[in-house]
Design brief:
17% of the residues lie in helices and 39% in strands. The protein has 4 helices and 14 strands. The strands form 4 sheets. Strands 1-4-5-12-7-10 form a 6-stranded mixed β-sheet, covered by helices on one side. It has a 4-stranded antiparallel β-sheet with strand order 6-11-8-9, with no helix packed on it. A hairpin with a 4-residue loop joins strand 4 and strand 5.
């Protein structure tokens, strides 16, 4: 199963610069002390610009570094050349920061129950985006040459949250990790 909880990721660091490894316990403490989502975003920016996490850039990874009822921290790695995820929601706020590479987000809205595109945003190394609890999006690493490595922080227990995914614009289904990421992880 692609989800792993708190395990060290095998393989070399992708970052070329000599950077300290992220202390997840320290990050969680800083995120808990944040007084607003703006402060959470600042802590994520600090983490992605000052630290790294060991990983293999050759295979996709979704590594749950921390999860409880109030906060989930995930390290996401998507190697180059893979298709986008299915559109999905989180039903909680999220802040995404990019360690390395690029993450393309396609956003959607649901007027009259049908999913339709509503814009997008590309994030590159050192950039962040904050998303509300009602955000629906799909993500992709658009590069054919380098891996996407990102830090995703969620305002709740993402692993235990009932969520939705869309297999086509009119079909909302219960979120299933393996199906939502099927083309990405095969």
């Amino acid at each position: 199963m692609p989800w792993s909880t708190g395990s060290a990721c095998p393989g070399p660091r992708v970052s070329v610069a000599a950077v300290a490894t992220l202390d997840v316990d320290d990050l969680v403490a800083r995120l808990r002390a944040a007084e607003s989502n703006t402060h959470v975003r600042e802590e994520v920016e600090r983490a992605i610009r000052s630290f790294t996490l060991p990983t293999s850039a050759e295979r996709p990874e979704v590594d749950v570094l921390h999860a409880d009822d109030e906060l989930t921290v995930v390290h996401v790695v998507i190697p180059p050349g893979l298709p986008p995820t299915l559109p999905h929601d989180h039903r909680m706020w999220a802040v995404v920061g990019i360690f390395d590479g690029q993450e393309d987000n396609e956003f959607f809205r649901r007027p009259a129950g049908v999913l339709e595109p509503s814009g997008g945003r590309s994030l590159r190394s050192g950039e962040t985006v904050a998303m509300g609890a009602d955000t629906i999006h799909a993500i992709q690493n658009p590069s054919s040459a380098s891996a996407l490595r990102a830090l995703h922080v969620y305002g709740g227990n993402l692993v235990g949250q009932a969520r939705s995914m869309w297999t086509d614009p009119g079909t909302e289904e219960p979120y299933e990790f393996e199906r939502a990421w099927a083309d990405t992880f095969t």
